[in-house]
Amino acid sequence: MAGAAEDVRALFGAAVRAALEAWPALQIAVDNGFGGVHSQEKAEWLGGAVEEYFFRNADLELDEVEDFLGELMMNEFDTVVEDGSLPQQLQTMFQHFQRGDRAALKEMASLITQRKCKVRATALPTAGETDEDDDANSVEEMEVAATNDGAATDGVCPQPEPSGPDSQTIKEEDIVEDGWTIVRRKK
Prior knowledge:
- The chain is mainly α and 187 residues long.
- It has helices at 2-22, 24-31, 39-56, 62-77, 85-99, 102-114, and strands spanning 117-123, 142-148.
- The protein has 6 helices and 2 strands.
- Strands 1-2 form a two-stranded antiparallel ribbon.
- Helix 1 (2-22) crosses helix 3.
- The longest helix has 21 residues, at 2-22.
- The protein starts with a helix and ends in a 39-residue tail after the last strand.
- Mean pLDDT is 77; it is low at 149-168.
């Protein structure tokens, strides 16, 4: 009986790691080195930390899970995360674990792996960019594009829009004296 419990626990751990690997916020943080030179190691550690958090706190509320993930992302990757998608998914996995539902855990991990998207973030220049952007309190906006690495799409991963010269929104006549640019709304 102990072997079956360990097997379900291992399945829960694998499902948690799959969910974290597919989480766009974590992918962006790791790919862009938000956690420093050890970003990948921190991401791997995060899976074990989340798994252990659930084991130590069996009756978690959704907002507690969200706060915990937000705190980890802020402390380890200096990243504010405000999408509530992952906590619900993790809580559902833990409920399957508590019931010993191996099939549901396997299915969730498989679906997550199939729908995994590869995200790419690029910094958007701001109108007031200066050489003093090294300020610790500055906030940088990012544009995120997702592409599907898995076999099934189901509309989960939108394809990135082309960013070639045709999609350029700034025209030469919009650039005026002293380097200022006139910004116009899209119609």
